[in-house]
Amino acid sequence: MQIQSRAEMIKTKPIDCLHFIDGKYVPSKNEKTFVNINPATEEVMGTVAEGGKEEIALAVAAAKRAFEGSWRRMPAGERARIIRRIGDIILERKDELAALESFDTGKPYGLASSIDIPRAAYNFHFFADYMASIGTEAYQMDDVALNYAIRRPLGVVGLINPWNLPLLLMTWKLAPCLAAGNTAVLKPAEWTPMTATLLGEICKEAGVPDGVVNIVHGFGPDSAGAALTEHPDVCAISFTGETTTGKHIMTAAAKTLKRLSYELGGKNPNIIFADADLDEVIETTIKSSFINQGEVCLCGSRIYVERPLYDAFVERFTAKTKELIVGDPLDPNTTVGTLISEEHYNRVRSYVELAVEEGGVIETGGKRPEHLSTGYYLEPTIITGLTNDCRVVQEEIFGPVVTILPFDREEEVIKQANDTHYGLSATIWTNDLRRAHRVAAQIEAGIIWVNTWFLRDLRTPFGGMKQSGIGREGGMHSFEFYSELSNICIKL
Ligand SMILES: NC(=O)c1ccc[n+]([C@@H]2O[C@H](COP(=O)([O-])OP(=O)(O)OC[C@H]3O[C@@H](n4cnc5c(N)ncnc54)[C@H](O)[C@@H]3O)[C@@H](O)[C@H]2O)c1
Ligand SMILES: N/C(=C\C=C\C=O)C(=O)O
């Protein structure tokens, strides 16, 4: 399908986003809505129904009915077929979903089309296949007794999502949640409602029974998000977002003792030893620094380079960064689109100004591109000359901004890499095999890549430690979160 121009798409597409509750698109009871702004044109693309306590109550009631109805009793093979079909339909509608994801986020259409949407489909295909292979455990107590565990679904689960990889991350939660036999109430991020809205009709077309998947739009505090974390019939929350938000949700969920899975913020080290292959390092570090405008929790925004390689790296990396094309997300030549919102643009810009106050040197970037007066565009930015204790090196910026610091010894860089409240991911570049294993084992992070970045095997544990998260999702870890185990002991 040729991508229609933004104007045509919005004229012809129902861009107003309604809730999807019990298999039907509905407005809020009080008719409240908020506007959805396109970050590249700063134009209103449509309205979004603003959900609150009432809409969450309707959605949870529908999910509860569906759970107690056909869904939990559906044979696993039939459930797997439906889940796989969701993935199929996402691929059939890839162009449309990629365009809407690009309109909502400002990310290049090419990125949405090559990464976000295919990975959203794969999340369903992966868990539909994986669920057939999961087992539990059994133990014989000599000839006295036999113990075996059975796995059962939790019930109604709340899934609260961020705006940076909207459909990818929403489906990373929804696929295993459904595969484990649960029903779900999803709360998309307020900045990115469109692909979430279409996910409702895609699930219905795939054969998901009404009420199994419900989508309620709105904000966090005093809105749909908070209501979901407080509802007594929601037994678990999987949340992806800022660490500060995670703390608020934990307080709200405590009242009803909900099970929690958290994927939170990060400030990830990218450690480059002098023996690394510089061409390979530069090519991947451009991605791990600036892909999706740096709005990826896994981005390696703290770059540490062993001193013998430092000058060559700064020179080559800066030159390569200057070649990146900041522009219209729908232009196939664009490699860096817009930030998500004016609010976020101003926040990221403030960190560039802070970096100068802290003594940093802006090697490139830090400004709005002169030829782009409309849209929340920011040049990819490289900062040197700071120390590890600077706020710009310590705090998550979540934009196209990286710092580069030199180091002399392995022990020194491990200490600096770990000197953070976060512990989500890390990247290590070296051709010394023993050093790779030795350093990786000492880095305090949930995910550590060596000589690569964002290479994902969905069977692996995914999540962060310290202030970057609680729990792991992926493969068996998702089933550990989205189901209960009971041990049955039979006397022989
Ligand atoms: N660890 C990961 O896998 C991962 C992935 C993507 C993004 N993130 C993190 O997410 C952040 C950016 O995403 P964001 O700005 O959407 O995060 P955010 O915390 O502002 O919002 C995330 C979601 O939580 C909702 N929310 C906000 N306050 C709430 C409350 N009190 N109760 C219930 N829901 C509430 C929001 O409406 C949104 O849907 C960054 O910190 C990034 O590192 C982490
Ligand atoms: N959760 C995942 C990616 C998170 C990206 C954060 O912005 C994944 O790849 O499964």
Describe the overall structure.
With 492 residues, the protein is of the alpha/beta class. It folds into two domains: 19-264 and 468-491, Aldehyde Dehydrogenase, Chain A, domain 1 (3-Layer(aba) Sandwich); 269-450, Aldehyde Dehydrogenase, Chain A, domain 2, CATH 3.40.309. Helices cover 40% and strands 20% of the residues. The protein is built from 16 helices and 20 strands. It has helices spanning 6-12, 53-71, 76-92, 94-105, 109-130, 166-179, 194-206, 224-230, 243-254, 278-290, 307-322, 342-357, 391-394, 410-418, 433-440, 475-482, and strands spanning 19-21, 24-26, 33-38, 43-49, 138-141, 145-153, 156-160, 183-187, 213-215, 236-240, 259-263, 269-272, 302-306, 361-364, 381-384, 401-407, 425-429, 447-450, 469-470, 483-491. The strands form five sheets. A seven-stranded mixed sheet has the order 14-15-16-13-12-17-18, sandwiched between helices. Strands 9-8-7-10-11-19 form a six-stranded mixed sheet, sandwiched between helices. Strand 8 (183-187), helix 7 and strand 9 form a beta-alpha-beta unit. Helix 2 (53-71) crosses helix 8 and helix 10 packs across helix 11. The protein is globular and about 70 Å long.
Topology:
Blueprint: H1 6-12, E1 19-21, E2 24-26, E3 33-38, E4 43-49, H2 53-71, H3 76-92, H4 94-105, H5 109-130, E5 138-141, E6 145-153, E7 156-160, H6 166-179, E8 183-187, H7 194-206, E9 213-215, H8 224-230, E10 236-240, H9 243-254, E11 259-263, E12 269-272, H10 278-290, E13 302-306, H11 307-322, H12 342-357, E14 361-364, E15 381-384, H13 391-394, E16 401-407, H14 410-418, E17 425-429, H15 433-440, E18 447-450, E19 469-470, H16 475-482, E20 483-491
Parallel strand pairs: 7-8, 7-10, 8-9, 10-11, 12-13, 12-17, 13-16, 15-16, 17-18
Antiparallel strand pairs: 1-2, 3-4, 5-6, 6-20, 11-19, 14-15
Helix pairs in contact: 2-8, 3-5, 3-7, 4-5, 5-6, 10-11
Bound molecules: nicotinamide-adenine-dinucleotide and (2E,4E)-2-amino-6-oxohexa-2,4-dienoic acid.
Nicotinamide-adenine-dinucleotide binds at residues 160-164, 169, 187, 189-190, 219-221, 225-226, 229, 240-242, 245, 248-249, 263-266, 297, 396, 398, 424, 464, 469.
